[in-house]
Amino acid sequence: MTLTKRIIPCIDVDLDDEGNPAVYTGVNFEDLQYTGDPVEMARAYNEAGADEFVFLDITASAEGRETMLGVVEDVADEVFIPLTVGGGIRTKEDIRETLRAGADKVSINSGAIANPDLIEVGAEAFGNQCIVISVDAKRRYDEQGDHYVEVDGESCWFECTVKGGREGTGLDVVSWAEEAEARGAGELFVNSIDKDGTKDGYDIPLTKAVCDAVSTPVIASSGCGGPEDMYEVFTDAGADAGLAASIFHFGDYTIRETKEYLDERGVPVRL
After folding, report:
1. CB neighbours (10 Å) of residue 16?
2. How far is CA 112 from CA 64, 68, 90, 116, 184, in A?
3. How far does Cα 124 stand from its chain's mean position?
4. How many CB atoms lie within 10 A of CB 139?
5. How confident is the model over 36-67, as pLDDT tens digits?
6. 14 classed as catalytic
7. Are 168 and 159 in contact (CB under 8 A)?
8. Does 57 reside within a domain?
9. For position 192, which CATH number holds?
10. What is the pLDDT of residue 160?
11. Using one digit for the tens of pLDDT, what is the confidence trace for 250-260?
């Protein structure tokens, strides 16, 4: 049986100047602009036919603070599809509290790189399906990587970054994806710093490199400019899910339009 491809809207949540949660959208993880209220957007996407929903607290890790669980609870009350929550998750107790707040899955980036055992601990305690390992990948054109691909005639590798792409780790994305899978990750969430917010299409070489290396489901993220980009990442890179923000937030396309486009071209989706 062919598994359907999932269409997943994502909100990046931060605190505004008055300390209230708000959704922001930017380019290359910078130049963030106010986009809307997280609870209202969650409700809208649930009604629009999204397959899943992702809530990312985009500054929790960088600021060393806890995830805004009160907002997670409010969002969870509005969505009746799988909810993934990420940002600031560093311990087994963080995972527990996030799931208790209503998340179905947790997305972990910096916390897992700092403590890889957290993947095994989380998978054993809560089940592999709850543990999503997120990577914020950035292209590098030097000789310090493990796995190389050709991009526009040049050889590059992809580096894992932390703190919202602000710091490099020296860790090769493909090597880390393989390790995360071996440690029990149930899903991999692949973000491209280079493509984020550009609407120029997903980073196909990055996504394909990860998909080819692991059997764990891969969510492609960053750069989606329309349904044709999702079609490409599904057919050319082998992604299991396509995540997008801007095209849905600003009404360029609806989730229904995106799914119909894919369905007409033979990509299995849930209509």
Report:
1. 10
2. 14, 19, 7, 5, 12
3. 22
4. 20
5. 899 999 999 999 999 999 999 977 766 665 66
6. no
7. yes
8. yes
9. 3.20.20.70
10. 98
11. 999 999 999 99
Decide if pLDDT at 29 tops 80. Answer: no
CA 79 – CA 102 distance, rounded (Å): 10
Q: Counting Cβ atoms within 10 Å, is residue 119 exposed (0-12), middle (13-18) or buried (19+)? A: buried
**Mean pLDDT (whole number) for 172-188:** 98
| Alpha helices (runs of H) in 101-149, residue ranges in sequence order | 110-114, 117-126
Q: pTM value?
A: 0.93
pLDDT tops 90 at residue 5: yes
Range 179-182, long-range pairs (CB < 8 A, 24+ positions): 179/116, 180/112, 180/116, 180/119, 180/133, 180/216, 181/214, 181/215, 181/216
What range does the domain containing 42 cover?
6-134+173-264
What residue type is 228 in one-letter code?
Answer: E
| Lowest mean pLDDT, pick from 15-24, 127-136, 173-182, 260-269 | 15-24
269 in a structural domain: no
Count of domains forming the chain:
1
Q: Say if residues 195 and 243 touch (Cβ distance below 8 Å).
A: no
Establish whether 240 is a catalytic residue: no
Task: Select which of 51, 57, 104, 136 is catalytic.
Answer: 136
- Look at residue 47 and tell me if it is in a domain: yes
> Does a structural domain hold residue 145?
no
Helix (H) or strand (E) holding 192: strand 187-192
Question: What distance in Å separates the CA atoms of residue 9 and residue 107, rounded to the nearest whole number?
Answer: 15
Q: Which two tokens stand for residue 208?
A: 């394909």
